[in-house]
């Protein structure tokens, strides 16, 4: 199998090109095509000599991710479903910082990125873990989600084809502008990011690098269900990302009910790892807390939650649960959500109640994939020839 060019760092590409006796500046020219101009083929790289392009083609790939489906919500949140080479599906969600409510264009965009196909952690409320874990995403499949969205959102690439034919004169300017579309990343799509540690870290190094997608480390948030050893490892990395913990319960009893990972790494261990992260990193941690009716929305959770947040200088992000078809859980009514918020505010901890931007497009992780797979299965079943034997004569 050929190596994907988007899985390599500048240094790795430089080494390879040097061994081909290419001048040093070629690596940056090549990366410019990949990360600034969203090139999806070698042909368009017109400032690279033909012989070099032939050699690159023989040893590397640069195919963009294949878009299977795109959905846009009323408030312009957009969801992308990608079909990977092995026909697995993964999702990315693009969320404008300022939804263009009154025609104001939004310049900052956050992209929610997936890191695995499925998830092994089996949280009881989550669509991603419903069918278990299939595989880790490769570096280029993580990086490719950012590049793929920028390509798809670029009017110059209406169908994602890399051909330069017919492109307007100012195509370069258009492409350059749109390559800055994604300014923030949240690693909160399908999968447990810290269970795909090596690939995630390499992808983030590439997405952070000035020669790559140039997204600042402070603008990248990794969300984890609480893998304690990896949180400690992440704290020791030279690149310092923001950390979000999917807490969803402030006592072991409540958390055990929702998240099997809590039996392996109970709250006391998780809190100690977060403390270490805070010590090393100094940045505020976020607690993600989904509100699920009758499970974790009782006021008994408020005091332990506030205590934990105070101890770890964490900010709490309350998220009304998104219903997943086939699962029994529901979001609490709005007055209950607001009462939970008010009780935390009374405890004087920083807390917000998220207004779900992607609620109407199945925004919670794993849901579009689940829906598409169910539809494809139903379609396959409907078109399958009947297997019943004809009645014997
Ligand atoms: N595995 C990581 C990151 C992916 S999940 C983690 O668990 O943190 C990203 C976030 O979406 C998590 O906080 C997760 O708990 C939340 N989530 C999953 N299913 C949800 C649903 N149906 N409604 C609302 N949030 C959900
Ligand atoms: Fe996996 Fe996160 Fe979903 Fe839990 S919430 S099953 S860790 S993706």
Which helices and strands appear, and what pairs or packs with what?
Elements: E1 3-4, H1 10-19, H2 25-36, H3 50-59, E2 60-61, E3 66-72, E4 78-83, E5 89-96, E6 109-112, E7 116-118, E8 133-136, H4 139-152, H5 171-178, E9 182-187, H6 197-208, E10 220-224, H7 228-235, E11 242-246, H8 252-258, H9 261-264, H10 267-281, E12 286-291, H11 302-312, E13 315-320, H12 334-346, E14 351-353, H13 367-383
Parallel strand pairs: 1-2, 6-9, 9-10, 10-11, 11-12, 12-13, 13-14
Antiparallel strand pairs: 3-4, 4-5, 5-6, 7-8
Helix pairs in contact: 1-2, 4-6, 7-10
Largest sheet: 10 strands, mixed
Bound molecules: S-adenosyl-L-homocysteine, iron/sulfur cluster
Number of spatially distinct domains:
2
Give the CA-CA distance, first to last residue: 54 Å
CATH class of the largest domain: Alpha Beta
Q: Helical element count?
A: 13
Structural commentary:
This protein is 36% helix and 17% strand. The protein is of the alpha/beta class and 393 residues long. Strands 3-4-5-6-9-10-11-12-13-14 form a ten-stranded mixed β-sheet, sandwiched between helices. Helix 1 (10-19) crosses helix 2 (25-36), helix 4 crosses helix 6 and helix 7 (228-235) packs parallel to helix 10 (267-281). The N and C termini lie far apart (54 Å). The structure holds S-adenosyl-L-homocysteine and iron/sulfur cluster. S-adenosyl-L-homocysteine is lined by residues 125-126, 188, 192-193, 223-225, 246, 288, 290, 319, 321-322, 324, 364-365.
């Amino acid at each position: 199998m050929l190596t994907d060019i988007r899985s390599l760092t500048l240094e790795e590409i430089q080494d390879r090109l040097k061994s081909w006796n290419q001048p040093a500046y070629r690596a940056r020219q090549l990366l410019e095509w990949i990360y600034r101009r969203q090139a999806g083929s070698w042909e368009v790289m017109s400032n690279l000599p033909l012989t070099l392009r032939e050699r690159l083609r023989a040893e590397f790939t640069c195919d963009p991710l294949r878009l299977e489906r795109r959905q846009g919500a009323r408030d312009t949140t957009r969801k992308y479903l990608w079909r990977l080479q092995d026909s697995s599906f993964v999702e990315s969600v693009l969320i404008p910082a300022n939804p263009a409510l009154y025609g104001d264009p939004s310049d900052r965009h956050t992209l929610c990125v997936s890191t695995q196909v499925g998830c092994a952690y089996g949280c009881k409320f989550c669509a991603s873990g419903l069918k278990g874990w299939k595989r880790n995403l490769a570096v280029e499949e993580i990086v490719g989600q950012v590049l793929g969205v920028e390509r798809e959102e670029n009017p110059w690439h209406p169908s994602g084809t890399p051909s330069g034919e017919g492109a307007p004169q100012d195509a370069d300017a258009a492409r350059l502008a749109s390559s800055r579309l994604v300014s923030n990343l949240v690693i909160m799509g399908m999968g447990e990011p810290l269970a795909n540690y090596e690939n995630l870290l390499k992808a983030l190094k590439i997405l952070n690098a000035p020669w790559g997608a140039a997204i600042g480390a402070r603008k990248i948030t990794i969300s984890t269900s609480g893998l304690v050893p990896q949180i400690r490892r992440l704290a020791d990395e030279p690149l310092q990302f923001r950390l979000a913990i999917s807490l969803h319960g402030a006592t072991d009893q409540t958390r055990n009910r929702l998240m099997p990972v809590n039996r392996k790494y109970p709250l006391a261990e998780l809190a100690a790892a977060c403390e270490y992260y805070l010590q090393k990193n100094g940045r505020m941690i976020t607690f993600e807390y989904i509100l699920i009716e009758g499970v974790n929305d009782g006021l008994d959770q408020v005091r332990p939650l506030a205590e934990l947040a105070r101890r770890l200088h964490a900010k709490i992000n309350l998220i009304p649960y998104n219903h997943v078809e086939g699962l029994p859980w529901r979001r609490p009514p709005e007055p209950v959500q607001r009462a939970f918020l008010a009780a935390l505010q009374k405890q004087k901890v920083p807390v917000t109640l998220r207004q779900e931007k992607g609620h109407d497009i199945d925004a919670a992780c794993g849901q579009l994939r689940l829906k598409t797979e169910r539809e494809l299965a139903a379609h396959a079943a409907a078109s399958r020839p009947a297997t019943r034997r004809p009645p014997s004569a």
